[in-house]
Amino acid sequence: MKASAQAMALLLAGSMALAACASDEPTGTGTGSGGGGGAATEDLRIGLAYDEGGRGDQSFNDSAYAGASAAADALGADLQELSPNEDASNRAELLTQLAEQGFNPVIAVGFAYDDVIAEVAPQFPDTTFAQVDGSNADGAKGDNVTGLVFAEEEGSFLAGVAAALKSESGHIGFVGGVESPLIEKFEAGYVAGAQAVNPQIRIDRQYISPAGDFSGFSDPARGQIVAQGMYDAGADIIFHAAGGSGTGVFQAALASGNRAIGVDSDQYLTVEPELQPVVMTSMLKRVDNAVEQFINDYAEGNVQGAQDVLSDLSTEGIGLATSGGFIDDIQDDVQQYSQQITDGTITVPTTVE
Amino acid sequence: MSGLARRLGLSLLGPVLAVLVALVISAVVIALIGEDPIEAFRVMVDLGDSPSQQVQSIVVVLNRAVPLFLAGLAVAVAFRMGLFNIGVEGQYRMATILAAAAGAAVALPGPLHVLLVVVVAMVVGAVWAGIVGVLKVTRGVSEVISSIMLNFIALGLASFLLTGPLRGSPPGASIVTTSEIPESGRVPSLNGLLTALGLAAPRSGLYGFLVVAVVVGVVVAVLLQRTRFGFDLRATGLSPSAATASGVDARGMVVKTMLISGGIAGLIGLPDLLGSQYDYGTEFTAGLGFLGIAVALLGRSTPVGIALAALLFAFLDRAALPLQFADIPSSVVTIIQGTIVLAVVIANEIARRLALRSAERAGASAGPGRDAGGDDGAPPPPGPDGGQRVRTGAPGTPEDVQA
């Protein structure tokens, strides 16, 4: 019995040692490419570090990529993307590696980088950082960090307005992915918007997974169950802020003959054709535009750092999609509310009371 | 002597086959997605150009390996007893949040403060796992079912505690955390040791908890191999009925084993908690309990094997970054990790059958005079299995996971 453990140990130690030897050889070529990187300081090299889920999540990671690659193409820049490991425990490594290898600017996607970017950015004062969904208005994360933040509550307010205007039963729903301050902004805006139209409206609210358990953003099956429960109880329109779980919400809407509101991107355009009729509208959060704009600003030397760039209704970084034409008849009302938010007549809450 | 050589050969066969098969399959997959396998493997073992980068890479691997090792150990202790503790995930999450809260709530001198956090974590982990053991011996509930269920309860409870009574972060913050553990409750990094050894200083600190992990590993190894308790545990794992017949209190063993397994599980979150995070929050590393199952399988439930398996997993984990810089999808790493575990399970089974067959042949030719397991002092196996560690579940239970 002990022999087997020792044999295993020997074998693995051996393979590790071989691996270590093998690493001597390619170091030369590695230095070569590193040197090339150093010489090419004139070229723009963009680093993009994703949040949990990485590329291909059909959500904000992909949206950030769309913006970054559009900017990179237009500017002829190099774009290096990095996805974290499965449990996203190596976020700090992602940022340091990008900065260390001379990528500039380095863009971190997601509020989860809050602590990490504050730790890494000061170590690389010559690199410009940006964080999607993370505020640095007070400069606490370093002078070289720009926060790309969004007024999700404003768009969600309009989604609530649309839902309340369109609801026939006077009963609507909200499905959040993971109970967290960010998603609560969606909820708060949605509730405020619906109640602005109809103070008596009944709003069911539920989160798929509790704080700390991020499965709620990628679990269509549970999204469907939660939404089905609300439709069964009489809700006829549900707004989801649940990332990948939203597909389940749409399926529940289709199965019960009701409608739903998408989030982040114009989901009427991204869902399967048979789900299109249920996507009444989508709350747009243009991460792509914000990222593209930031890179262009950087290329033109207009990035100051230690401040936030806010995307909201006035900058059209936040909005309500009209694809499918389901809300064309209420556009005037929606525009009115939108105007009142932009000029400050209505202040949208960001937290649920 | 030839018997010993054959045993050694057969026990080597499993891991060798597994690693070879995993490498071949991974190479084929890499080639199929249109990348050069040799280039991919080269990138994976490249630790960096400068000495400080190389030391940093090693520190990253070690820091990742420490929690993986503890997770593997927690799972393995139960494995050896024939118990499948899937609840390690919930055990360490509960342990970490309560330990974080306890560490933040008190002010004690340095070593005592750390000790308190460690004790709280171990006790919480042990209690959470103990529920599983008690349910099994009193109500006959399969530990697989109850430990999975307790995972959900632990996640929900941890979330409630985090967003409710134990919330320490300001109301508007995106990441909800407990209050920070003060300086005296943190474990210093081992970077001083690295520089004293003449190595370049890495960017991030090497977890001081590495030392604790090594100590725990040694203690578990001694406990399993050199004590009456360990003998009872392994005997019960090999054959519950035989162990009971020879006077082992099987029910008591189940509860004790789960307590130990849970106690170790409680430590999993501490390297991160006391070495870099200092609080438990919504972004605290999740899933280590499940990774621990893979690590324990790969390490064949022995402390040394688990240490190597944890290092291998950590090494592969780090390799995901350089792969992406080389424009090779980092999912290659996930594929390799999965193939290795699968291959180990299959190879172990093949090696076991080969060993069984050759032993049967040897037994038949040697006749009744030469009995099973005669040529070294190995603990009595249920049959001559060529040094292969076979762990069978209780008769009739479906949770026989190690092939």
From TrEMBL, chain A:
Leader sequence residues: 1-19
Subcellular location: Cell membrane
Key word Ribonucleoprotein present: no
Sequence ranges assigned to domain ABC transporter substrate-binding protein PnrA-like in this UniProt record: 51-350
Signal listed as a keyword: yes
Keywords: Cell membrane, Lipoprotein, Membrane, Signal
Membrane-topology annotation of the record: Lipid-anchor
InterPro entries: BMP_lipoprotein (IPR050957), Peripla_BP_I (IPR028082), PnrA-like (IPR003760)
GO cellular component: plasma membrane
Pfam families named among the record's database cross-references: Bmp (PF02608)
PANTHER family linked: ABC TRANSPORTER GUANOSINE-BINDING PROTEIN NUPN, TRANSCRIPTIONAL ACTIVATOR PROTEIN MED
Membership in a protein family: Belongs to the BMP lipoprotein family.
Protein name per Swiss-Prot or TrEMBL: Nucleoside-binding protein
Organism: Geodermatophilus poikilotrophus
TrEMBL record, chain B:
TM region(s), chain numbering: 12-34, 54-79, 91-108, 114-137, 144-162, 206-224, 288-316, 328-347
Chain spans, region Disordered: 363-403
Source taxon at top rank: Bacteria
Transmembrane as UniProt keyword: yes
Organism annotation: Geodermatophilus poikilotrophus
Major localisation: membrane
Name this polypeptide is given: Nucleoside ABC transporter membrane protein
Keywords from the named record: Cell membrane, Membrane, Transmembrane, Transmembrane helix
Pfam family, one: BPD_transp_2
Key word Disulfide bond present: no
Membrane topology term: Multi-pass membrane protein
GO molecular function: transmembrane transporter activity
GO cellular component: plasma membrane
Location of the protein in the cell: Cell membrane
InterPro entries, sorted: ABC_transp_permease
